[in-house]
Design a protein that fits this description.
Blueprint (H helix, E strand, L loop, with lengths): L12 H56 L3
């Protein structure tokens, strides 16, 4: 009968698969979070650009009125 060597070092295949699965789950959660942040940034950027163009139009209107009154 073979004697079992209890001084083995290393990991079993099951342990490695479990670790890889945990890493994949964590990476996907982080990826989803980053994607949400990027989309929120794009929406905010679009809103800022819209407000900036509205402000430019208002400034041009005000300048036109001032010119009309001789300023």
């Amino acid at each position: 009968m073979k004697k079992i060597n209890k001084n083995k070092h290393g990991f079993t295949l099951t342990e490695m698969i479990l670790v890889v699965a945990i890493i994949i789950i964590l990476a996907s959660a982080i990826g989803i979070g980053v994607a949400d942040i990027i989309n929120a940034g794009k929406r905010a950027d679009a809103q800022v650009n819209k407000q900036a163009s509205t402000l430019r139009a208002n400034i041009n209107n005000s300048e036109a009125k001032l010119t009309y009154y001789g300023f």
